[in-house]
Specification:
The chain is built from ten helices and no strands. It folds into three domains: 48 residues, Homeodomain-like (Arc Repressor Mutant, subunit A); 132 residues, Tetracycline Repressor, domain 2 (Orthogonal Bundle); 35 residues, no CATH class. It is mainly α. The protein starts with a helix and ends with a helix. The longest helix is centred in the middle third of the chain and has 25 residues. α1 crosses α2, α5 packs antiparallel against α7 and α8 packs antiparallel against α9. The relative contact order is 0.08.
C-alpha cells in the first residue's frame, strides 16, 4: 500500500503538478482511504521522501554499533554512504524526485530539514567520540557538516547525470576528500632501533703524526683493523 501511494502521488505530480495535487487525489488514485495515507506519511511532502525515515534509522543504528576500533571520520563517511545506497536502489525515482524538488520551494525546504537531521545524527556520534578533547564539539560539528556537504555535492552531480554516472565512485571521491582533511593521519614509521653503544673491543685507536698525509692515516687504520681481525 505504501508503494502504491508513492506511485499514485508521483503520477499525479507529473500530470497536474505538485501544488494542484491533494491527498484526496492521491488516495483516490491509489484506491485507499485518507487514514491509510496518514498511517504511512504525516504530510503530502513526506510522500516525496518515502525512504528517509528508514534510512535515518539505519544510519543511527550503524553509528550506535560503532566501537573504539572504528576511526570516527571514516565511520561517519561510511554512514553517509547508506544514504547513497538508498538513492541508488531506484535511480529513476531518485532522478524524478530531484527534478520535482527543484521546481517546488516547499519541497526544497522539507528536504533541507531532512538533511539537517542526517547532519545532527553524524554530529551527535562525533561529539561522543571527541568528548573531552579540546574543541571536540567544534570539530564534531564541522566534520559532520563537511561530510553532508561532500556527499550532497556528489549525489547531486549523479542526479544531474540522470543517474547514469557511477554514483559510488563519485561519492567515494568526495568523501575521500573529507577523510584526507579531517581523518587520522597515517601512522608514522616506527623509529629506527638505536645503535648499541660500542664496547671497548669495537674501538680501534690509531695515532698519527700531525700533518701526516691522508693516505698514510688510512693505511694505518687498515693495518690496525687487519691486525684486529675485523677487516674484510
Amino acid at each position: 500500500m505504501r508503494d502504491a501511494l508513492v506511485t499514485a502521488a508521483f503520477r499525479l505530480f507529473l500530470e497536474r503538478g505538485y501544488e494542484r495535487t491533494t491527498v484526496d487525489d492521491i488516495v483516490a488514485l491509489a484506491g485507499v482511504g485518507r487514514r491509510s495515507f496518514f498511517r504511512y506519511f504525516p504530510s503530502k511532502e513526506d510522500v516525496v521522501f518515502p525512504d528517509h525515515e528508514r534510512c535515518l534509522a539505519d544510519m543511527t543504528a550503524f553509528l550506535a554499533a560503532s566501537g573504539e576500533e572504528h576511526e570516527p571520520v571514516r565511520r561517519v563517511c561510511d554512514a553517509a554512504r547508506l544514504v547513497l545506497r538508498m538513492y541508488a536502489e531506484n535511480p529513476a525515482f531518485s532522478v524524478q524526485r530531484y527534478h520535482l524538488t527543484k521546481r517546488v520551494p516547499g519541497l526544497r525546504a522539507h528536504e533541507l530539514g531532512v538533511v539537517q537531521r542526517y547532519q545532527r545524527a553524524l554530529a551527535d556520534y562525533l561529539r561522543g567520540r571527541f568528548a573531552g578533547r579540546r574543541d571536540g564539539i567544534l570539530r564534531a560539528d564541522v566534520i559532520a557538516a563537511a561530510v553532508v556537504a561532500a556527499h550532497n555535492n556528489a549525489l547531486r552531480a549523479w542526479l544531474r547525470s540522470g543517474g547514469r554516472a557511477d554514483a559510488t565512485a563519485t561519492v567515494d571521491h568526495a568523501l575521500g576528500y573529507v577523510e584526507s582533511v579531517f581523518g587520522r593521519p597515517p601512522a608514522a614509521e616506527p623509529p629506527t632501533a638505536p645503535t648499541a653503544p660500542a664496547t671497548p673491543e669495537d674501538v680501534v685507536v690509531v695515532v698519527a703524526r700531525r700533518g701526516a698525509p691522508l693516505w698514510q692515516v688510512v693505511r694505518e687504520i687498515e693495518t690496525a683493523l687487519a691486525h684486529d681481525g675485523t677487516h674484510p
